[in-house]
């Protein structure tokens, strides 16, 4: 059925603003995953003594990411021996990305959205955004250490997941905190 956007209220607008911000994080996660996979693949092949065509290696990771994010993450988890906690963080981030990209806006088009939007839906969205932020942060830390050849900036890496989550969800939180008649 058609989306009745002209019937949306302030909450739907704020919710969709937050979903749009979350999609920016989804794209950041996917891009950083792609970069990580590319660099790790090149490093592994170099350590195995293979000749590397960087352009070809970049295209390989592009094709893999275009196929499925889950396949790329399984490759990172399986071939590069990351610890179980990091594997769980990346899997949770992938699942959160899928929820945000494919399900999070579904309820927004319901005519009774303001009534439907309750604590449970808000909690689910917050949990998914935070899981995605944690996965993106992990990949960014690895990318930083690889590319800059120095330890990740602790202040930023420790604060980033909560800061980006708060920014993404701020439009909804402002609505929830505002008095309504």
| Tally of DSSP helical segments | 7
How is the quaternary structure best described? single chain
| Global shape | elongated
Integer average pLDDT: 82
Helicity range of the residues? over 70%
Low-confidence stretches: none
N-end to C-end Cα span: 31 Å
Query: How many β strands by DSSP?
Result: 0
What about the largest sheet? Answer: none
CA gyration radius, whole angstroms: 19 Å
Brief sketch in words of this structure:
This protein is mostly helical. It has seven helices and no strands.
Would you spell out the secondary-structure blueprint of this structure?
Elements: H1 10-47, H2 54-67, H3 69-79, H4 84-102, H5 113-116, H6 119-148, H7 154-177
Could you list some keywords that capture this structure?
181 residues; mainly alpha; 7 helices; 77% helix; 0% strand
What does the model show?
The protein has helices at 10-47, 54-67, 69-79, 84-102, 113-116, 119-148, 154-177. By secondary structure, the chain is mainly alpha-helical. The chain has seven helices and no strands.
